[in-house]
Amino acid sequence: MDLQVGKNSKNTKMSERKPKNIFSKGPIPASFIAESIQKHSSQKAIGGHSIFLGQVRADQTENGIVKAIDYTAYEDMALEKMHLIREDIFAKYPLTCMHVHHSLGEVAAGEICLFVFTSSAHRKAAMDACEETVERLKAELPVWGREIMEDDSHQWKVNQ
Amino acid sequence: MDLQVGKNSKNTKMSERKPKNIFSKGPIPASFIAESIQKHSSQKAIGGHSIFLGQVRADQTENGIVKAIDYTAYEDMALEKMHLIREDIFAKYPLTCMHVHHSLGEVAAGEICLFVFTSSAHRKAAMDACEETVERLKAELPVWGREIMEDDSHQWKVNQ
Amino acid sequence: MQVQVMIFGQLTDITGKSELMLYDIPDTDTLIRTLLSIYPALSDTKFAIALNKKVIRENTLLEGDNNIALLPPFSGG
Amino acid sequence: MQVQVMIFGQLTDITGKSELMLYDIPDTDTLIRTLLSIYPALSDTKFAIALNKKVIRENTLLEGDNNIALLPPFSGG
């Protein structure tokens, strides 16, 4: 809901507002996602939620099988960038709210590393905003994934 | 995973296979959604999940404020239709799996009445398949929502 | 031909029931005419007829084991 | 001009460290030349320079309180 404020204060200088944190240590638990969904039951103008979850794949690569990804970020820059993406998305779509969570540190194959959650009165805005947010954050946030192989060697993730 | 079977048996007659149930009584709890997400952690070829949740809106209408929707369905026909939609979507997108749940009976404003969950190796297929499934099931499944007003009068929901 | 008709959604507000037994109904055109004569309000309402779980668009002969349903516009999700 | 440079992602495999202090760096072109002379392997790697959390594309003068970071292609999510 604090995002509604962002929507109405587009001329406020970035330095005057602290961007919302999106990072947390380790995988994102399913229980956290459930709590986040549950919190929206009091928001009775919402008709649709769209959720994207990124899950670490046990990719078979020429260097072996990926067993985990270790994420690092240039956090300050990523949060400022995410704040701008948020403002763009709120300006473009009639959203009720948006929540973004990205893991830092090690996330094992099968675990969740990204959680993007958009809500709106009607489904189309929530779905389009979720997709656009996912695309933009993958392209624009200074975050890096170090793929850790089963033999503990590593290689760096390349986004498609 | 049983859906993979459907994909490979398109010439099997409908009557030989029982369509999967999608209906359950009352709202869909957030804890059920969390369990469903958690179950996929063993599927290590999945890279992205897309989830759509329909939530009952407390719409302000000329007949009052909606406090709940009471859903009924022509269940046999809806399940056969959903089975066909599923096969179409699996033929069109490289999905790992798809799960659909729709409420029957009363669902109060703020509660979840629809849960569509698609997973794939890469995000685009999961997102596109989720959106197309939601659009198709809203247009094609014989399901009806009876909006119950705060004064206990009712009107019938009209899909956009 | 005796037929049993399932009625769904807002149509039940008109018929007051969710099942109906009708007699001397050889085909779906006769079914529609009969329904409209019993429930004139149905003429103000959009609905489709499903025969054995498939929506039919043209007059169709009714056989012994038909599954007939009246479907108003869907509003699931 | 003395500058502190933050290093991220695969670039740390080349530099072996995530922070670097350099001296006599008046602008970003000098910064790039100096980095490549210390770490020739950087020339095989794509990276951008962020100055005060904005990616810069042209040579830029460095002032006292600059925040400099080397960013290889992003791979979040």
Radius of gyration of chain A: 17 Å
Residue ranges of chain C: pLDDT <50 for 5 or more in a row? none
Distance between the termini of chain C: 37 Å
Structure annotation, total helices of chain A:
4
Strand content of chain A: 35-45%
Q: In words, what does this structure look like?
A:
The complex is a heterotetramer, with two copies of chain A (160 residues) and two copies of chain C (77 residues). By secondary structure, chain A is an alpha+beta fold. Chain A has one domain (24-39, 46-156): Molybdopterin biosynthesis MoaE subunit (Aldehyde Oxidoreductase, domain 3, Alpha-Beta Complex). Chain A has four helices and eight strands. The longest helix of chain A has 18 residues, at 75-92. Chain A is globular and about 50 Å long. Chain A starts with a helix and ends with a strand. By secondary structure, chain C is α+β, with helices and mostly antiparallel strands. Chain C has a single domain (2-71), classed as Roll (Ubiquitin-like (UB roll)). Helices cover 21% and strands 26% of the residues of chain C. Chain C is built from two helices and five strands; from the N terminus they run E-H-E-H-E-E-E. In chain C, strands 2-1-5-3-4 form a five-stranded mixed beta sheet. The N and C termini of chain C lie far apart (37 Å). The model of chain C has no long low-confidence stretch (mean pLDDT 95). The A-B interface holds A 30-31, 33-35, 37-38, 40-58, 109-112, 119, 121-123, 126-127, 130-131, 134, 160 and B 30-31, 33-35, 37-38, 40-58, 109-112, 119, 121-123, 126-127, 130-131, 134, 160.
